[in-house]
Structures are given as C-alpha cells and as structure tokens.
C-alpha cells in the first residue's frame, strides 16, 4: 500500500494482483489523547468505499510506489513483473519481466529511477524517464 504525498489517498495492492484506491486522509496520532491506562483510542471505522483501479498483476502485489509527483505508479509482483501504470487512466504503460521474484521496491525522489531487489539478493536499477521504454542501468 502507498499513501499519496498529500496523505489523502491510499493505493492498495492485493494478493490477487488487483490495485485499489481509498480516498481517506491519514490522521496523525495525538499522544495527549491516549487514556491514562495507556490504551489507545477506539478504532475508527472507514465508511469510504474502495475504488478498484484494475487488475495489473496475475499474482500478489509485493510493492507499490508513486513515480515522483505524477499520477503514475510502479508496482512489483510475485508474478515476476514490474509494471508502470497510469492511475488516472487505469492503464498499464509497460510490463517488465523480472528474472527472479522481486521482493523490494524503491523509487528516486524525482520518480525517474526505480530500484528492484530480488529474492536471490540481486537488484536491478531502471531509468524510467521514458515511462513506456524503461532502460536497465544495472
């Protein structure tokens, strides 16, 4: 799952490859509002419906990150793929097969470089300036 930079939208990847969006603003915990016994406040129920963006993978989504300030995301999955997609159009831009199952994902602050770690301890670095034709750097 990944919160937008404004913390007003949460994008969630499921174990069956579906990506969904929940428009729900994150709340900052208030340390002063804890009970004297140390118990946390009661759990809040979310009444906002989940919006299904689409099925972008054929297996569990492992990682999901925004690409800079754009409406584009990158995701990795147990289906051994890395996918770049446009959230506003619910469209895959590119799907890149991975040699081994990916286990870790990170993105540069500007959203132009993607780092993918694998199950066997290797990592790949992609230049994604051209979102439809990413270039493997290492």
Report a brief summary of the structure.
With 138 residues, this protein is mainly beta. The protein has strands spanning 2-3, 10-13, 18-22, 51-55, 61-66, 72-77, 81-86, 91-97, 102-107, 113-118, 123-127, 135-136. The protein has one domain (2-26, 48-136): YVTN repeat-like/Quinoprotein amine dehydrogenase (Methylamine Dehydrogenase, Chain H, 7 Propeller).
CATH superfamily membership: YVTN repeat-like/Quinoprotein amine dehydrogenase
- Main CATH class: Mainly Beta
How many strands in all? Answer: 12
What value does the average pLDDT take? 82
Order of helices and strands: EEEEEEEEEEEE
Give helix % range.
under 10%
Tell me the strand percentage band: 35-45%
- Kindly, what is the distance between the CA atoms of the first and last residues, rounded to a whole number of angstroms? 26 Å
CATH topology: Methylamine Dehydrogenase, Chain H
CATH architecture field: 7 Propeller
For the CA atoms, what is the radius of gyration?
A: 17 Å
Structural class: mainly beta
- Number of individual domains: 1
Largest sheet features: 4 strands, antiparallel
Give the helix tally.
0
Mass-distribution shape? globular
Q: How are the strands of the biggest sheet laid out side by side?
A: 1-2-3-4
Uncertain stretches of 5 or more adjacent residues: none
């Amino acid at each position: 799952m990944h919160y937008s930079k404004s913390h007003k939208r949460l994008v969630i990847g499921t174990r069956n490859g579906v990506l969904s969006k929940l428009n729900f603003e994150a709340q900052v915990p208030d340390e002063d509002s804890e009970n004297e016994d140390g118990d946390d406040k009661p759990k809040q129920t979310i009444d906002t419906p989940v919006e299904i963006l689409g099925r972008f993978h054929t297996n569990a989504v492992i990682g999901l990150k925004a690409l800079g300030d754009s409406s584009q995301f990158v995701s990795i999955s147990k289906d051994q793929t890395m996918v770049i997609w446009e959230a506003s159009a619910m469209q895959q831009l590119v799907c890149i097969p991975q040699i081994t199952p990916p286990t870790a994902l990170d993105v540069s602050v500007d959203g132009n470089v993607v780092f993918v770690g694998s199950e066997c301890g290797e990592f790949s670095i992609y230049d994604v300036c051209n979102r439809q034709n990413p270039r493997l750097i290492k």
